Amino acid sequence: MSVQGFAGDGYEGVTELLTRFVADGQETGAGLSIWSAGAEVVDLTAGWSDAARTEPWRPDTLVHTYSTSKPFAALATLTAVASGALELDRAVAAYWPEYGQAGKDETTLRDVLTHRAGQPVFPPAAATVDLVDEDALREILAAAPPETRPGTVLAEHALTYGHLLDGVLRAATGQPLGHWFNDVARPALGMDAWFGVPTSELPRVAELEHGLPGGAAQMLAEVCPTYDRALSRPHGAMDMDRINSTAFRQSTFAAINLHTSARALARFYSTVTDPDGPLRDLLGEKLHTEFVTTQVTAVDQTVQERVNWTLGMFRTDNFIGMGGLGGSAGYWSFTNGHGVAYVTRRLHDHGRIGQIAFGMGDNLIKAV
C-alpha cells in the first residue's frame, strides 16, 4: 500500500507524513487535497477504499465525513434563504407549525443554524426509531420540548442539526434539504458531494472501519467522550454495518452524512471567504458574509470548549472550517492562504490532520 499523487513546492512534507501514517498503521485509506490561488497544489491518496483492500483510494473516492457535513447542511438552508423562501430571524414555527409546540414557538432559524435551538440530542422516543426513518425523527423533534430555552445555550446539535433544518425546508418550500444541496448549491459550486448518494455514484464510496479494537465504545470513551450522549439516539450512528449500508448512503442524515472527496472539500474551502467567489455568487453579499462570520461565542456544552460558531462552521483567527468524528476535516487557513481537506475511512482521532496542519504552520485549535 503506497501513497500516490503529487505535492507541490513547499508542501513536500505532507507526503512524508502520509507515508508514515500508512507505514505505522494509522491509516488504511485516505485522501489529502490542498488548494491555493485557484489551483490544487497537493493531491495525495493512500491505501484502499474497501475493507477487502482490493480497490485503491482514488482522487474521486467519496467518503462519509460525519460532522464535516454540517456546513453543507447549513449551506443548503442558506440557499433557500437566498431564494427568498426563508428568513434567518423568523420563527421556525411560522414555516413549520408543528414545531411550535412545547416551548419552541419562538425558536428562530438562526437559533437552529447556530446550535442554540435547545435540542442537541434526539429525545428518548428516538431510541427505537430506525436511523434512516427521516420522517419519524423529524416528527419526534417537532413534538419534543427543548432541553434549554432556545437562543440561550450553545451546544453542537451533533445528530439533530440536519433533521431540524430539513423540517424547516420541507415545510417552507415543499422540497427537502437534499434538493437544496444536491440540485441547487452543489451544481452552482461545481462540487462533487452529495446528501443521498445517487445509485450511479455508489461504486465510488469508501467503506468506513473503526480504527480502535473496541470499536464505537472505545472511540467514545477515549476519543470523543463529550459526545457520548449526543450520539446515543437513534442507534447506529457509529455502527459500521449501518453507516456502510446503501440505505444509509442514500438517505439524508444531514448532520453527518455528506459524502464527498478530499479534492471537492478542499476546493470548496479554498474560496469559502472569497468576496468574488462562487459562494458569494450563490448566496449574495449579505448572506455570504453572515455564513462565514462569527455569530456566537460561548462554551459549547457538547464540545466542552469555548468556541466561535458561524452559521454552520467553527472559526478562529487562524482558520474556518469543520471536522468530523473519526478524523475527516476541511478548512481554510487564514494564516497560510490555502484550503485543506483530509478524508479517511479509518475512524480514529484528529491526530492525522492535526499533524498535517502543524507541519504546514496551520493552527487548528478551535477553543477561543
TrEMBL record:
One of its GO terms (molecular function) is hydrolase activity. Keywords: Hydrolase. InterPro entries: Beta-lactam-related, Beta-lactam/transpept-like, Beta-lactamase/esterase. It holds the Pfam family Beta-lactamase. The keyword Hydrolase applies. Residues 16-349 form the Beta-lactamase-related domain. It comes from the Bacteria. The keyword Translocase does not apply. PANTHER family: BETA-LACTAMASE-RELATED, BETA-LACTAMASE-RELATED DOMAIN-CONTAINING PROTEIN. This is Class A beta-lactamase-related serine hydrolase. The lineage of its organism: Bacteria, Bacillati, Actinomycetota, Actinomycetes, Jiangellales.
